[in-house]
Structure prediction request, 257 residues.
Amino acid sequence: MRKFIVAGNWKMNTTPKSGKQLVKDVLKKTKPENVKVIFGPPFTHLLQTQKQLKGHKGFFAAAQNMHQEDRGAYTGEISVEMLEDIGAKFVIIGHSERRLYFKETNALLLAKTKKAILHNRKVIFCCGEPLAVREKGTHFQYVMRQLSATIFKLSPEEFKQVIIAYEPIWAIGTGRTASPEQAQDMHFAIRAAIKKKMNEDLASGTSILYGGSVKPSNALEIFKQPDVDGGLVGGASLHADDFVAIIEAAKKTDRGR
Ligand code: 13P
Prediction:
Protein backbone atom coordinates (compact mmCIF):
# COMPACT_ATOMS: atom_id res chain seq x y z
CA MET A 1 0.00 0.00 0.00
CA ARG A 2 1.21 3.50 -0.72
CA LYS A 3 2.75 5.75 1.89
CA PHE A 4 1.15 8.89 3.24
CA ILE A 5 3.77 11.64 3.20
CA VAL A 6 4.10 15.20 4.46
CA ALA A 7 7.16 16.90 3.00
CA GLY A 8 8.40 20.40 3.70
CA ASN A 9 10.17 22.26 0.91
CA TRP A 10 12.02 25.09 2.61
CA LYS A 11 13.22 26.54 -0.71
CA MET A 12 15.83 29.29 -0.17
CA ASN A 13 14.76 29.97 3.41
CA THR A 14 16.30 29.43 6.85
CA THR A 15 19.94 29.46 7.91
CA PRO A 16 21.77 26.51 9.44
CA LYS A 17 20.95 28.01 12.83
CA SER A 18 17.24 28.69 12.29
CA GLY A 19 16.85 25.43 10.35
CA LYS A 20 18.29 23.50 13.27
CA GLN A 21 15.78 25.11 15.60
CA LEU A 22 12.90 24.39 13.24
CA VAL A 23 13.73 20.69 13.04
CA LYS A 24 14.22 20.56 16.80
CA ASP A 25 10.81 22.14 17.41
CA VAL A 26 9.02 19.77 15.05
CA LEU A 27 10.73 16.72 16.57
CA LYS A 28 9.67 17.86 20.00
CA LYS A 29 6.03 18.37 19.06
CA THR A 30 5.03 15.36 16.98
CA LYS A 31 5.68 11.74 16.08
CA PRO A 32 4.95 10.74 12.49
CA GLU A 33 3.26 7.40 13.42
CA ASN A 34 1.61 6.27 10.17
CA VAL A 35 2.92 9.21 8.10
CA LYS A 36 6.38 9.80 6.61
CA VAL A 37 7.66 13.28 7.36
CA ILE A 38 10.34 14.81 5.15
CA PHE A 39 12.34 18.01 5.64
CA GLY A 40 13.79 19.70 2.57
CA PRO A 41 16.38 22.23 3.78
CA PRO A 42 18.92 24.09 1.61
CA PHE A 43 22.19 22.24 0.93
CA THR A 44 24.12 24.22 3.56
CA HIS A 45 22.20 22.42 6.30
CA LEU A 46 21.11 19.17 4.71
CA LEU A 47 23.81 17.16 6.50
CA GLN A 48 22.98 18.82 9.79
CA THR A 49 19.30 17.96 9.32
CA GLN A 50 20.18 14.40 8.42
CA LYS A 51 22.16 14.11 11.68
CA GLN A 52 19.36 15.64 13.73
CA LEU A 53 16.93 13.02 12.42
CA LYS A 54 19.07 10.04 13.46
CA GLY A 55 17.04 7.80 15.72
CA HIS A 56 13.77 9.60 14.94
CA LYS A 57 11.60 7.04 13.22
CA GLY A 58 9.49 8.24 10.31
CA PHE A 59 11.49 11.43 9.69
CA PHE A 60 13.65 11.88 6.58
CA ALA A 61 15.61 14.58 4.78
CA ALA A 62 15.35 15.57 1.13
CA ALA A 63 17.58 17.57 -1.18
CA GLN A 64 15.81 20.24 -3.21
CA ASN A 65 17.78 19.53 -6.36
CA MET A 66 20.80 17.63 -7.74
CA HIS A 67 22.93 17.57 -10.88
CA GLN A 68 22.52 14.87 -13.51
CA GLU A 69 26.26 14.16 -13.97
CA ASP A 70 28.35 12.11 -11.55
CA ARG A 71 31.00 14.75 -10.93
CA GLY A 72 33.17 17.29 -12.64
CA ALA A 73 33.51 20.93 -13.56
CA TYR A 74 30.00 22.11 -12.70
CA THR A 75 30.58 25.02 -10.37
CA GLY A 76 27.93 25.38 -7.72
CA GLU A 77 26.29 22.02 -8.30
CA ILE A 78 25.63 19.03 -6.02
CA SER A 79 25.95 15.41 -7.18
CA VAL A 80 23.93 12.36 -6.29
CA GLU A 81 27.02 10.75 -4.71
CA MET A 82 27.17 13.64 -2.28
CA LEU A 83 23.54 13.02 -1.34
CA GLU A 84 24.21 9.31 -1.02
CA ASP A 85 27.23 9.91 1.18
CA ILE A 86 25.31 12.00 3.70
CA GLY A 87 22.37 9.60 3.60
CA ALA A 88 19.74 11.92 2.14
CA LYS A 89 17.24 9.42 0.80
CA PHE A 90 14.95 11.80 -1.08
CA VAL A 91 15.43 14.45 -3.74
CA ILE A 92 12.89 16.91 -5.14
CA ILE A 93 13.12 17.12 -8.93
CA GLY A 94 11.16 19.22 -11.39
CA HIS A 95 9.81 21.89 -9.08
CA SER A 96 8.10 24.62 -11.11
CA GLU A 97 10.58 27.16 -9.72
CA ARG A 98 13.46 25.11 -11.14
CA ARG A 99 11.65 24.80 -14.46
CA LEU A 100 10.85 28.52 -14.60
CA TYR A 101 13.87 30.31 -13.11
CA PHE A 102 16.58 27.80 -14.02
CA LYS A 103 15.12 26.72 -17.36
CA GLU A 104 15.10 23.04 -16.46
CA THR A 105 13.56 21.13 -19.35
CA ASN A 106 11.72 17.82 -19.32
CA ALA A 107 14.76 16.13 -20.89
CA LEU A 108 17.02 17.44 -18.13
CA LEU A 109 14.54 16.45 -15.42
CA LEU A 110 14.38 12.94 -16.82
CA ALA A 111 18.20 12.72 -16.76
CA LYS A 112 18.28 13.91 -13.16
CA THR A 113 15.54 11.48 -12.17
CA LYS A 114 17.29 8.52 -13.79
CA LYS A 115 20.57 9.41 -12.10
CA ALA A 116 18.91 9.73 -8.69
CA ILE A 117 17.18 6.37 -9.07
CA LEU A 118 20.37 4.68 -10.25
CA HIS A 119 21.82 5.70 -6.91
CA ASN A 120 18.81 4.43 -5.04
CA ARG A 121 17.38 7.82 -4.11
CA LYS A 122 13.63 8.39 -3.99
CA VAL A 123 12.49 11.16 -6.27
CA ILE A 124 9.71 13.57 -5.40
CA PHE A 125 8.83 14.56 -8.95
CA CYS A 126 6.80 17.75 -9.37
CA CYS A 127 4.30 18.61 -12.06
CA GLY A 128 1.56 21.20 -12.41
CA GLU A 129 0.05 23.76 -14.73
CA PRO A 130 0.23 27.57 -14.81
CA LEU A 131 -2.87 29.71 -14.33
CA ALA A 132 -3.43 30.42 -18.03
CA VAL A 133 -3.60 26.69 -18.76
CA ARG A 134 -6.05 26.10 -15.92
CA GLU A 135 -8.24 28.92 -17.19
CA LYS A 136 -8.19 27.49 -20.68
CA GLY A 137 -9.26 24.15 -19.26
CA THR A 138 -6.36 22.15 -20.71
CA HIS A 139 -4.68 21.36 -17.39
CA PHE A 140 -5.13 17.59 -17.64
CA GLN A 141 -3.46 17.45 -21.05
CA TYR A 142 -0.70 19.79 -19.82
CA VAL A 143 0.19 17.66 -16.80
CA MET A 144 -0.02 14.43 -18.82
CA ARG A 145 2.42 15.93 -21.33
CA GLN A 146 4.82 16.82 -18.51
CA LEU A 147 4.66 13.27 -17.18
CA SER A 148 4.85 11.59 -20.60
CA ALA A 149 8.04 13.50 -21.36
CA THR A 150 9.64 12.58 -18.03
CA ILE A 151 8.75 9.88 -15.53
CA PHE A 152 6.56 7.86 -17.89
CA LYS A 153 9.74 7.18 -19.83
CA LEU A 154 11.17 5.28 -16.86
CA SER A 155 10.99 1.50 -16.63
CA PRO A 156 8.41 0.16 -14.15
CA GLU A 157 11.33 -0.90 -11.95
CA GLU A 158 12.69 2.65 -11.91
CA PHE A 159 9.22 4.12 -11.43
CA LYS A 160 8.93 2.35 -8.06
CA GLN A 161 11.27 5.03 -6.66
CA VAL A 162 9.01 7.89 -7.69
CA ILE A 163 6.67 9.96 -5.58
CA ILE A 164 4.64 12.49 -7.56
CA ALA A 165 3.81 15.98 -6.33
CA TYR A 166 1.03 17.78 -8.17
CA GLU A 167 1.61 21.47 -7.62
CA PRO A 168 -0.58 23.79 -9.68
CA ILE A 169 1.61 26.86 -10.18
CA TRP A 170 -1.27 29.25 -9.52
CA ALA A 171 -1.57 27.80 -6.02
CA ILE A 172 2.11 28.05 -5.05
CA GLY A 173 2.84 30.79 -2.56
CA THR A 174 -0.36 32.58 -3.53
CA GLY A 175 -2.60 31.57 -0.65
CA ARG A 176 -4.99 30.29 -3.31
CA THR A 177 -5.32 26.53 -2.88
CA ALA A 178 -6.79 24.09 -5.33
CA SER A 179 -10.13 22.93 -3.96
CA PRO A 180 -10.14 19.39 -2.60
CA GLU A 181 -12.16 18.38 -5.70
CA GLN A 182 -9.68 20.00 -8.10
CA ALA A 183 -6.83 18.18 -6.37
CA GLN A 184 -8.69 14.87 -6.34
CA ASP A 185 -9.63 15.12 -10.04
CA MET A 186 -6.03 15.67 -11.09
CA HIS A 187 -4.64 13.02 -8.75
CA PHE A 188 -7.21 10.54 -10.05
CA ALA A 189 -6.20 11.36 -13.63
CA ILE A 190 -2.51 10.94 -12.80
CA ARG A 191 -3.16 7.58 -11.14
CA ALA A 192 -5.18 6.41 -14.14
CA ALA A 193 -2.31 7.43 -16.40
CA ILE A 194 0.19 5.48 -14.27
CA LYS A 195 -2.02 2.42 -14.69
CA LYS A 196 -2.05 2.86 -18.44
CA LYS A 197 1.64 3.66 -18.90
CA MET A 198 3.08 1.42 -16.17
CA ASN A 199 0.83 -1.10 -14.45
CA GLU A 200 -1.90 -1.53 -11.88
CA ASP A 201 0.44 -2.21 -8.95
CA LEU A 202 2.37 0.99 -9.54
CA ALA A 203 -0.87 2.94 -9.96
CA SER A 204 -2.12 1.86 -6.56
CA GLY A 205 1.32 1.94 -4.93
CA THR A 206 2.54 5.39 -5.98
CA SER A 207 2.10 8.24 -3.52
CA ILE A 208 0.75 11.40 -5.14
CA LEU A 209 1.19 14.52 -3.00
CA TYR A 210 -0.59 17.81 -3.41
CA GLY A 211 1.36 21.08 -3.15
CA GLY A 212 0.26 24.69 -3.26
CA SER A 213 -0.66 26.78 -0.21
CA VAL A 214 -1.26 23.77 2.03
CA LYS A 215 -1.82 25.09 5.55
CA PRO A 216 -3.33 23.88 8.82
CA SER A 217 -6.77 25.22 7.87
CA ASN A 218 -7.08 23.31 4.58
CA ALA A 219 -4.80 20.28 5.01
CA LEU A 220 -7.38 17.83 6.35
CA GLU A 221 -9.96 18.46 3.60
CA ILE A 222 -7.32 17.98 0.93
CA PHE A 223 -5.75 14.95 2.60
CA LYS A 224 -9.13 13.24 2.92
CA GLN A 225 -9.39 12.90 -0.85
CA PRO A 226 -8.90 9.25 -1.82
CA ASP A 227 -6.13 9.88 -4.35
CA VAL A 228 -4.26 12.48 -2.30
CA ASP A 229 -1.48 10.79 -0.34
CA GLY A 230 -0.07 13.78 1.49
CA GLY A 231 1.40 17.17 0.76
CA LEU A 232 4.47 19.04 -0.39
CA VAL A 233 4.40 22.13 1.77
CA GLY A 234 6.28 25.36 1.17
CA GLY A 235 5.58 28.40 3.34
CA ALA A 236 3.78 26.58 6.14
CA SER A 237 6.69 24.14 6.57
CA LEU A 238 8.83 27.05 7.82
CA HIS A 239 6.76 27.39 10.99
CA ALA A 240 7.00 24.47 13.38
CA ASP A 241 3.45 24.85 14.70
CA ASP A 242 1.94 24.99 11.22
CA PHE A 243 3.98 22.09 9.91
CA VAL A 244 3.11 20.02 12.98
CA ALA A 245 -0.60 20.84 12.52
CA ILE A 246 -0.37 19.64 8.90
CA ILE A 247 1.33 16.41 10.04
CA GLU A 248 -1.44 15.93 12.60
CA ALA A 249 -4.06 16.41 9.86
CA ALA A 250 -2.32 13.73 7.82
CA LYS A 251 -2.36 11.35 10.77
CA LYS A 252 -6.11 11.85 11.12
CA THR A 253 -6.76 10.46 7.66
CA ASP A 254 -5.49 7.15 8.97
CA ARG A 255 -4.34 6.10 5.51
CA GLY A 256 -0.60 6.08 6.09
CA ARG A 257 1.45 2.94 6.35
P1 13P B 1 3.56 26.95 -0.78
O1 13P B 1 3.08 25.92 0.20
O2 13P B 1 4.32 28.06 -0.14
O3 13P B 1 2.44 27.41 -1.65
O4 13P B 1 4.62 26.22 -1.74
C1 13P B 1 4.29 25.01 -2.30
C2 13P B 1 5.50 24.45 -2.94
O5 13P B 1 5.99 24.98 -3.92
C3 13P B 1 6.13 23.27 -2.33
O6 13P B 1 7.10 22.73 -3.15
Remarks:
- Residues 9, 95, 167, 172-173, 211-214, 232-236 surround 1,3-dihydroxyacetonephosphate (CB under 6 Å).
